[in-house]
Amino acid sequence: MEKLILVTGATGYIGNCLIPRLLEKGYRVRVLVRDPKRLRGHPWLSQVEVAQGDLLDAQTLAPALDNVDAAFYLVHNMSNGRHYEACETESAHNFASAANTTNLQQIIYLGGLAHPEEKTGSHLRSRLKTGEILRSGRVPVTEFRSSFIIGSGSISFEMIRYLTEQFPLLIGPRDLKNLSQPIAVQDVLAYLLAALETPACRGGIYEIGGRDVLSYAETMLSYARLRGLRRGMLLLPWIPVDLMAFLVGRLTPIPPRIARALISGIRGNSNVHVAAADKVFPDIHPKTYQLAILSALEQLSPTRLEPVWRNGASSSRIMTQGFFIENREIRLEARPEAVYRVVSGMGGKNGWLYLNGLWQLRGFLDRLAGGSGMRGRSSEGNLSEDDIMDYYRVEAIEPGRMLRLKAELKAPGQGWMEWRAAPDGAGTLLSQTAFFAPRGLMGFLYWYLLWPVHALVFAGLIRAIARRVRELKDM
Length: 475
Hints:
The chain has 475 residues and is an alpha/beta fold. It has helices at 13-24, 61-65, 84-100, 122-135, 155-166, 185-196, 216-226, 241-251, 256-264, 276-280, 289-297, 336-344, 356-368, 440-474; strands at residues 4-8, 28-33, 49-52, 70-73, 106-112, 141-146, 149-150, 169-173, 179-180, 183-184, 205-208, 214-215, 232-236, 315-320, 323-332, 388-389, 392-398, 402-407, 413-424, 427-438. It has 2 domains: 4-297, Rossmann fold (3-Layer(aba) Sandwich); 304-474, Alpha-D-Glucose-1,6-Bisphosphate, Chain A, domain 4, CATH 3.30.530. The longest helix is centred in the C-terminal third of the chain and has 35 residues, at 440-474.
């Protein structure tokens, strides 16, 4: 296909999921971003055109829309804080006006599922208003109104995940009795892609949701059951929105300003009333809530994560997609193969290069808890997948470049260590990343309580690797 597709909101969750699927189908893709640096680390970056622009700056939009056949409008302005509604209105006006002066054939807009005649929060009212503004232009609009999206990385799902994991008793407002129709991200993407190839959908509004209609409270309790967690629910007449947003901001990856907007959205129902999508897109059969959750939980692996922590910083610590992630980087004057030899040579008789006694102590405690403890190395030579390195097992390996180990400790969660040695000019950029996916409250407490020790060990380990590389180079 030679069609050129513009994606706005490329750094957002849906945009990032949609772009590789567009490329797989053979479309040419252009992305509109305010800061191209935010695209760093995305595997599809080299395959797309990048247009720098801002929906709040109308003059920057014409170049982005030049020669575009269809455009996806996937942006929101919740990160702008309390005045985000005005920003959303201005962005939509600017985009619709710019589109009017082009040969654009279609705008595909993903909004929120709410009903204008019913009570709803400001976030969903703003989503409806955005669709209205886009439709006021010359270009036909296909508007999807979606209930909240289930997928690893979706802010709605991450709120459910992190709060349900951490609180044995879930406390919320009575608005949690309102109805929702959560939909799997795979089904949302199917609708968006089908809109490009379904001329009959242009100019239509389509409410989309999953197979099950659940209260917001039931979505959290159902998640808990699927994770094997026992959770209770207490609904109170009123809880300050700002307090809830503060707690969400402290306990989840979602900033308080975005959490506030999302929480306001539960004031009304978000379920499908008009099933027009079933007629226009008969080949799409949305998943059940259970299957959507299970599919999202299958992503709980470092291999499924977007490497957003690789941002050029010497160290970073983030919480995302069910993980705590700590990354450190250092540049070395050595070839990647030499750095990899040092990394892959640790463990067993060679020990660990920093505070080896602590590694031994952790193995001893694991054995007391019924685990295998320190087991040495199954191979003293070159490593292969599934080899043992003390209480780790080699999960993935690229000789000379990358080594990822999965911990087999008795712990309330899953842990990994990964090293990457990437060519960097005449030297090597060594990246060391620790991943931990907690399970339940004990998993979060485990990470928080041991964080000072982990920070000390991880920081010292990469420095010790660097020293050993320099020592071997000087020999």
